[in-house]
Amino acid sequence: EELLDLYTRAIAFVNTSRFEGFPNTFLEAWARSTPVISLRIDPDEVITRHKLGTVAGGSLEFAARAIRHFADDRAAARICGEDRRRCSAA
């Protein structure tokens, strides 16, 4: 229960894994309207296709820009988590 509360308070869930299938952590974040910033993993292009956050294509610089964007504009992070049609991350 405490962990799920952290998703709610987070500006984004950041995944830096190189190899992963479809992590449950993505589902947990999205269930709490928290966008995902993934360094590499986009299972079946779900993040990109449904605008559930951003995928950095392996670029730490791009991921850092997305994190900074959400940190500087928490409303944008919330919008991305709640209204995927208007989501923009970097």
Question: How would you describe this protein?
Answer:
It is a single chain. The protein has helices at residues 2-9, 24-31, 46-50, 60-72, 74-82; strands at 13-15, 36-38, 53-55. The longest helix is centred in the last third of the chain and has 13 residues, at 60-72. The N and C termini lie far apart (31 Å). The mean pLDDT is 87. The protein is built from five helices and three strands. Strand 1 (13-15), helix 2 (24-31) and strand 2 (36-38) form a beta-alpha-beta unit. A three-stranded parallel sheet has the order 1-2-3. Helix 4 (60-72) crosses helix 5 (74-82).
Keywords:
48% helix; three-stranded parallel sheet; mainly alpha; 90 residues
Overall spatial form = globular
Q: Give the N-to-C terminal Cα separation.
A: 31 Å
| Structure classification | mainly alpha
Number of extended strands: 3
Radius of gyration: 12 Å
Number of alpha- plus pi-helical segments: 5
Overall pLDDT: 87
Task: List SSEs in N-to-C order.
Answer: HEHEHEHH
Proportion of residues in β-strands:
5-15%
Query: What is the helix content?
Result: 40-55%
- Tell me the strand order in the biggest sheet: 1-2-3
Largest beta-sheet details: 3 strands, parallel
The low-confidence parts are: none
